[in-house]
């Protein structure tokens, strides 16, 4: 049982509220004061760092979108100076955090020099990428994809795009076959992962880890995560496609950062960005049909769509 002096003891608690929206800041501060705690408000990231240093609060309530210095950077600096619990306020489901991606029937190649319209390509690609991203998300890969909105649209989380194209090659084809003089169809002793700097003016040049770090495109930790996720994506997708009679020859993926700094798979995976060969017939079912004027381009996309989604057209 507590004695009377212990019962009357009030532990002074100080909460630093970092919020640039005055009405919200006042409302939060009032709730804290009503609990008998002390609230102090800072309205930008830099003032928050300063206030945390002098006030030594017991808790920080931090908004992410702030002027001068954003909430994540301010949190890093505050915690580096003195460990303190920080409650991050984020409007994750805000419309501003989402983007709608629309798939069209246009097909392009050779840096958009060659262009055409393929009937229903937008519908096929939206369905194919939505299904692939759904499979990957269920297997624990963090993705930007949220939901399929319509035949040709999907909702995704907004990301800070990393300008690197990561290419996985299970079978030699395309530029690797040309560059190294290897016949298409050769299976490499080890799966190849290429990095390209996403810059169309330069022709998306092939780079290596040193370039990616030297150009400041990613940190070492991010690059390691990108390789880990890419390997996992390949391990998941190869057997899925094999199960529907298709060899996943190669594919290109891209990644982005969420506001909390974590890496997610972004962009899309479709016959525009992957090579799919029918295991039985060897028929190419991807953009190479368009690149090399093989004809039946839409038929290739439709086959992938039907086998992957089980849909009948
Ligand atoms: P390659 O290096 O042989 O041209 O391409 C390897 C794989 O990555 C192919 O499946 C190709 O479709 C894909 N790829 C490479 N660069 C790009 C690109 O800039 N855009 C898209 N959509 N796919 C690409």
Radius of gyration: 26 Å
What distance lies between the first and last C-alpha atoms, to the nearest angstrom?
74 Å
- Ligands, deduplicated: guanosine-5'-monophosphate
Strand content: 15-25%
Helix-residue proportion = 25-40%
Low-pLDDT stretches are 1-8
Number of helices: 10
Order of helices and strands: HEHEHEHEEEEHEEEEHEEHHEEEHH
User: Can you summarize the main beta sheet?
Assistant: 7 strands, antiparallel
The residue-averaged pLDDT reads 93
Based on secondary structure, the structural category is: alpha+beta
Number of DSSP E strands: 16
Shape by Cα distribution: elongated
Characterize the structure shown:
The chain has 313 residues and is of the alpha+beta class. It has ten helices and 16 strands. The strands form four sheets. Strands 10, 11, 12, 13, 14, 15 and 16 form a seven-stranded antiparallel β-sheet that branches. Strands 2-1-3-4 form a four-stranded parallel β-sheet, with helices on both faces. Helix 3 (45-55) runs parallel beside helix 4. The chain is elongated and about 75 Å long. The N and C termini lie far apart (74 Å). Bound molecules: guanosine-5'-monophosphate. Guanosine-5'-monophosphate is lined by residues 165, 167, 173-176, 204, 250-252, 272-275, 287.
Explain briefly what this protein structure is.
This protein is an alpha+beta fold and 313 residues long.
């Amino acid at each position: 049982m507590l004695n009377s002096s212990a019962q009357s003891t009030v532990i002074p608690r100080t909460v630093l509220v970092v919020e640039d929206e005055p009405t919200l800041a006042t409302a939060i501060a009032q709730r804290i004061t009503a609990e008998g705690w002390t609230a102090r408000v800072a309205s930008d990231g830099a003032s928050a760092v300063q206030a945390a240093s002098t006030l030594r609060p017991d808790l920080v309530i931090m908004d992410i979108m702030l002027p001068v210095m954003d909430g994540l950077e301010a949190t890093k600096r505050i915690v580096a100076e003195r460990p303190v619990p920080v409650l991050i306020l984020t409007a994750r489901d805000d419309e501003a955090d989402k983007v709608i991606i629309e798939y069209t029937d246009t097909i392009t190649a050779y840096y958009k020099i060659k262009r055409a319209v393929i009937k229903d390509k937008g519908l096929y690609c939206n369905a194919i990428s939505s299904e692939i991203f759904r499979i990957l998300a269920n297997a624990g890969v963090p993705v930007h994809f949220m939901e399929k909105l319509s035949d040709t649209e999907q909702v995704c989380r907004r990301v800070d795009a990393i300008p690197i194209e990561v290419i996985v090659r299970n079978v030699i084809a395309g530029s690797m076959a040309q560059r190294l003089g290897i016949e298409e169809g050769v299976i490499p002793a080890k799966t190849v992962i290429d990095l390209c700097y996403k810059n169309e003016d330069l022709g998306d040049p092939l780079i290596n880890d040193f370039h990616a770090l030297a150009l400041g495109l990613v940190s070492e930790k991010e690059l390691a995560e990108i390789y880990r996720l890419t390997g996992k994506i390949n391990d998941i997708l190869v057997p899925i496609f094999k199960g529907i009679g298709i060899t996943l020859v190669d594919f290109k993926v891209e990644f982005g950062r969420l506001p909390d700094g974590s890496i997610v798979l972004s962009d899309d995976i479709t016959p525009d960005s992957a090579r799919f060969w029918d295991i039985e017939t060897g028929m190419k079912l991807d953009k190479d049909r368009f690149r090399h004027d093989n004809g039946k381009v839409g038929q290739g996309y439709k086959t992938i769509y039907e086998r992957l989604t089980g849909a009948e057209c």
